[in-house]
What we know:
- By secondary structure, this protein is α/β, with parallel strands linked by helices.
- It has helices spanning about 5-15, 30, 40-45, 60-70, 80-85, 95-105, 125, 130-150, 185-195, 215-230, 250-260, 275-290, 325-335, and strands spanning about 50-55, 75, 110-115, 155-160, 200-205, 235, 240, 265-270, 295-300.
- The chain has an eight-stranded parallel beta barrel with strand order 1-2-3-4-5-6-8-9, surrounded by four helices.
- β4 (about 155-160), α9 and β5 form a beta-alpha-beta unit.
- The radius of gyration is 20 Å and the shape is globular.
- The two termini are about 30 Å apart.
- (3S,4R)-3-hydroxy-2-oxopiperidin-4-yl beta-D-xylopyranoside binds next to loops.
Amino acid sequence: MRKLLSASLITASLTTVGLLPPAGAASATTLTSPATTLAAAAERSGRYFGVAVQGYKLSDPTYAGILDREFAVVTPENELKLDATEPVQGRFTFAPADRVVDHAVRLGKRVRGQTLLWHSAQPSWLASLRGAALRQAMLNHVTQVAAHYRGRIQAWDVVGEVFADGPTGARRDSNFQRTGDDWIEAAFRAARAADPGAKLCYNDYNIENWVHAKTQAVHRMVRDFRARGVPIDCVGLQSHFTANHPVPADFATTIRNFAALGVDVQLSELDIEGSGATQAENYRRAVTACLAVDRCTGITVWGVRDSDSWRASGTPLLFDPTGAPKPAYTAVLDSLNGGACR
Ligand code: XIL
C-alpha cells in the first residue's frame, strides 16, 4: 500500500520552506495533535484504515456518513465474489460492485477487492465443471474481473481460505483444489497479467496464531511462492476474533514472520466479539500488533456498525447500531495516535 508522509516529515518540510516556525513553537501543535478519524490517525503511521461496505446501504445517511468520514480504504463485502460477478458463465455483472467502487473512488478512497477465487459464494454453473474446463473457467474469471477493474483496485485478495482447519495443515477440499495443487499460483499469475498494478494478496482466517498448523501451512506456501517467483505481494490475516478464538499473545510474531517473507501484511477483516472495556482492550491489542511491524500496512474492519455485521449478535464492530462510536472505537483511535490517552 502507498506509504503516506508522516506528520513529522510534513512538519519538517514546512519548517524548511519557512511555512512553519521551528519545532516547539505553538503554531506547530495543530499538526501534532491527535488525529480525530481512524483514516487520519492510521495515515500518520503510513498505514490505512479500511472497512467492508455493502453497496445497498450507501443510501443510508448514517452509514455513508461514517464511511465517508472514518475510512480510507473500502472492500466491497460481497459484490466482487464469484456468484455476484459471474452469475452465468461468461456473463459478467459489475453494477453492484461498481456502485461501491465508484463511491470510494469519487471520495478519493482506495479499494481492496475480495475475493477472486473462494470455495464459497460460487454460482451453480461452476459445480458442473471439472478438470481442464473448470481450470479454464476459473482463470478466465480471474482475468476478466481483474481486467475490468484494472487501475481501480489497490489490492486484490486473489485466492482465499484454501487451507483446512485442524492439526494437519492440509489443503481444503474444493472444486478448484481438485484441478491440481498448482491452481493457486496459476490464479496469481493470471491476476498479475490482467492488472499488473494491483497488489496481489492471499487471504485466510485462523492464521493469526503463529503455532497453529494452518498458520504454518500458509507461511510455507507464501515462502515457496516467493522463492519460485509466483507474483504474491501481501497476506491478509482476516482476524475474526471471539472469546473462544481471542487475539493471540503471539499475534505480532505471526505478522512479523509473514512480513519477513517479503510481503506486506494486512488485518483484512478485523472484528472482535464483545462489548465495553474488554472489547476495547482486545481491539487495542490487535491494532498494537499491526503497529509493531513496519510491513503491516493496514487494517480493515468487517463492517461499519454492529447491526451491519455478518455476525451482528456478537456486536463485534466499532460503532453501535445508532452510529455512535463504542469504547472499542476510542481504543483503536487512541492506539493509532500512539496510545497517549490510556
Ligand atoms: C461474509 C460476508 O460478511 C457476509 O455478508 C456473507 O453472507 C458471507 O461472507 N471470510 C471472508 C469474507 O473472506 O468474504 C466473509 O464475508 C467472511 C469470512
